[in-house]
Each structure stands twice: as C-alpha cells, then as structure tokens.
Amino acid sequence: MAPYFLRNLLPRREQRAEGRPLLEVLATLTWVQWGHFWSGWLAWTCDAIDFFSVSLSVAHLQTQFDRSTHDITTAITLTLLFRSIGAVVFGIISDRFGRKWPLIINLLMISVLELGSGFVESFHAFLAVRSLFGIAMGGIWGLAASTALENLPVEVRGLASGILQQGYAVGYLLAAVINLTLVPEAAAGWRSLFWTASGISAFAAFVRFLLPESEIFLRAQAAERARGGSTTKKTKIFLHETWEMLKRHWLLCIYAILLMTGFNFLSHGSQDLYPTYLTQAKLFTDHNATVATIIGNCGAIAIFVLLIGAFIPLWILPSSFGALAAGAFCIQFGVQGAWGVIPIQLAEISPPAFRATFPGVAYQIGNMVSSASAQIEATGAANLHTTIIDKNGQPKVVSDYATVQGILIGVVAAFVLVITIIGPENYGSHFEKSKAAFEEGAGRDEIVEDDHSHPNSNMASRPTSLQIVDEKRSTPEPV
Predict the structure, then answer these.
(1) Can you tell me the distance from the alpha carbon of 168 to that of 170, in angstroms, rounded to the nearest whole number?
(2) Fewest CB within a 10 Å sphere: which of 103, 223, 236, 442?
(3) Which segments show compositional bias classed as Basic and acidic residues (predicted)?
(4) Which helix or strand (DSSP H or E) is residue 300 part of?
C-alpha cells in the first residue's frame, strides 16, 4: 500500500452513504439553522474588521504616537500573541456550557475593547488595550465556526465552510471601505474606524442573542438532566474527558498547530503590512493604498495554494496602480481560497466533543507563532533598500518591502502545501452525533447511542465516518 502522504496526492471521488443533492439539502434547512450559520459568519466578519483596523491605520498611528512602523506593528504582534489565551478560555467554556452565551460575551468584550482602542492617548495605553483585545478576540473563531457548522447537515458543510471563512475577507473589505469613506471625513479621524467596528461587533452579539442555543447542546443537556447529572459532576467529567482527549490525540494537536502556523503566516504575511508597503515602497497615497486593499479582498471573496506562488511576481514587481491591484486581487484569491476549507477541515479532524476548543486553540497558537509576520517584514524592509522612480521622475531609495514579502510568502506557501499533503483528513464526519464534552466517553470520541432527537435525524441510521475513524484514531494519524 502506498504511503499515506502519497495516497493524499491522488485525486479521488469521496463517497458518502446515501448523500443527498446539495440543493435538496439546502431546501430543508430551518430558519434557526440559517440563523446559526449567519450569526457565526457575522461574528467572524467582526473579528476581521476589528483586527485590521490597526493594519489600515498604521500611518495615522505613526503620526498620533510619533512612532516607527516597527513600533506600531508591535500592537499587531501583541494582539496575535494573546489570542491563544482567549481561544483556550472561551473554547473550554463553550465546550462545557454551550455556544450561545460564551459567544455573546466574547463579542461584547471585543466591542468594548475596540471602542477603548479609539479613545487611548498614549502608545503604551494603546498596546495594553490591544493586548487585552487579543485575549477577547482569541475566542471568536472557534466559537463562530462551531456555531455556524455543527447545526448544518453534513452535505452542506463544505460549502458553508468556504462561505464562513470568507467572512474574514469581507471584514477586511468593510474595514477598508470605512477607512476610505468615513475616516477622511470624520473629525475623529482614525478613531472613527475603531468606533464603527465596535458598533458592528455589538450588533453581532445582539443577533446571536436572538437565536437559541445550539441544538446539539440542548440535546446533551436534556440527556444529562434525565440521568440526574449535577453541575459538579459534569465539570469533573469534562475535565476527565479533556485529559483523555489530549492523551489520545496529542499528535493530531501538534499537526493542527503546524497547519495553522503555515496558514496564518500566509494570511498575515500578505495582509497586515500591505497598505504600508504600498504607501512606503510604491509611494501610493493613503486613498489609493486603501482602494488596492479593497480590490485585493474582492479577489479573496471571489482554492488554490499553488496559485499563490504563480501570482507573487504580479504582486510585488509592478509599480503601476492597475498592475499592483491585479496582483493583490490574485494573491488574496489564492490565500483566501485555500483558507476556505480550513473551518470544516479542522472541525472534521478535531476530537468531535471539543469542536470549539481544538480548532480555536490550534488556530490561535498558529496565530501566535506567526504573530511576528508584520515585524519580520518591517525589520527586513528596514535593512533592505531599493531605488524607484517617484512621481516627479526622480530616483528615490525606499525600503524593499516587495522582496521581503515575496520571499516570506513563497516559503510559507511551499510549507503549507507540504504540511497539507502529509496530514490526515476525516471527510464527511458526522461529528453532530458525538457526545458533548461533559458526557462520559466524549474524550474517546464516543457517539450518542440514540440521536433521533437531532434535527438531522434522517441521517441517524447511516454508517458514520466517526464509527469508521474511531478505531483508526486509537493510534495517531501519520504526520
């Protein structure tokens, strides 16, 4: 038999027992299922708006605090570093107590801290607020993805995953549009971007408030009440099952972190300093740099890691607005296209009872490792210079962001390609059939014996991929 990574290279048609046509399944979704999906999407969109508020305001923040680009990007690095804490805290709370209120509280926290970011007057206060913001922000992805995907039938989760992940590109796009239209007109300047982002996050919390708890948690809680389980007992079981999960899936945890490290380097390396690169290395105005960012994110919204390598020259070599905007469009099409499969990929390979904690922590630790992307690029560009012709036809020495970013993205794209090929998958996993994290056996990936109460119970009689994969998971997947 061919080695695992070689078999991953071979195209194959996946089979799902009694799989129904996509349009037929979409027609059966209830308004609550649609509501859960779009509330998760909106939460993830808010995450991007709030995060990229700093990236789009680097020049304004330099003026406000009289600091260098390297100093300002420290705020981005700190936000990414502290997100792992939030992923652990909110992921555990969500897997233990449910999806609804942890996500609402999480969104309200980032709303308050984003609002506070727009009021600070000193650089150190700004760094402190952005660090706290990172903790709050860290919980969003795992909670948003589990809220959006776990209540949907298995047949539509792949499509839903792609749409969910593009909420990040939509958020960046919205932040860029606000920066282009509101910021130049508002007396508050760059602060108005942060305040607007805060309001959108509060609105997302209100939307989630209107929707019920996840059906899977309602089912598990009802079963526990029927068995007479107390809160103290459920917490003890949760802690025990968490330890069982870590013993069973430690190698899978390492793989997921490596995968997310590569993907986060890919996104942050191509996005965080892009507006600064255009203004300082290509001498664009703030207006044109923001327009190019918008065009780039349109490409992202419009799955291919291989395309990224092909588009790098178009992204960094031209000097004209049209060519660079086309490069931004293509590079973000590749980056975000590849990202589109990540929510469902992580949800399917994760220990099924820990669908908020496992993907969220893996994602945010990857963020933590890649947190220095902007500073790596800023430092590299500060020590590498090139000469360009300015608008007056005169030669000018500028920081060579193009070469630094091109090398970083090229190396990371190759890493992501390799780590994806050699990694495991669990396509079509019926993780909705698994026990909740506070039920005995959850850490061993046990499924619920009778899940006919689930809204997708027409799938209950089918053989599930979890039943097939459970034995395979007793030994770690090859990495």
Answers:
(1) 5
(2) 236
(3) 442-454, 469-479
(4) helix 286-301
CA–CA gap between residue 433 and residue 336 (Å, rounded): 30
Q: Cβ(49)–Cβ(200) under 8 Å?
A: yes
Is 439 within a domain?
A: yes
The CATH number of whichever domain residue 252 belongs to comes to 1.20.1250.20
Cα–Cα distance between 266 and 335 in angstroms, integer? 7
292-340: pLDDT as tens digits: 766 655 544 454 444 445 545 654 555 666 666 666 666 666 666 666 6
Whether residue 36 lies inside any domain: the answer is yes
- The span from the CA of 380 to the CA of 370, in Å, is 15
Mean pLDDT of all residues belonging to the chain: 75
- Owner of token pair 């308004």: 31
What are the DSSP calls for 66-128, one per residue?
T--HHHHHHHHHHHHHHHHHHHHHHHHHHHHH-SHHHHHHHHHHHHHHHHHHTT--SHHHHHH
Work out the angle between the directed axes of helices 274-281 and 58-65 (0-180°, nearest 10). Answer: 70
230 pLDDT more than 70: no
CA distance 374 to 76: 8
Produce one character per residue of 258-278: b if its CB has 16 or more CB atoms within 10 Å, e if not.
bbbbbbbbbbbbbbbbbbbbb
For residues 395 and 388, the answer to whether their CB atoms sit within 8 Å is: yes
8 A C-beta contact, residue 146 and residue 94:
yes
Max Cα-Cα span within the chain: 80
Name the amino acid, one letter, at 123. F
Number of domains composing the chain: 1
Mean pLDDT, to the nearest integer, of 35-54? 93
CA atoms of 261 and 431, how far apart (whole Å): 25
Given a cut of 70, whether residue 186 has pLDDT beyond it is: yes
The reply to whether 196 falls in a domain is: yes
Query: Looking at residue 231, what is its pLDDT?
Result: 57
Q: Is residue 219 part of a domain?
A: no
Beta carbons within 8 Å of 107's beta carbon, 6+ residues apart: 43, 46, 140, 201, 202, 204, 205, 208
Please state, in angstroms and rounded to a whole number, the distance separating the CA atoms of residues 55 and 272: 5
Name the pTM for this structure. 0.67
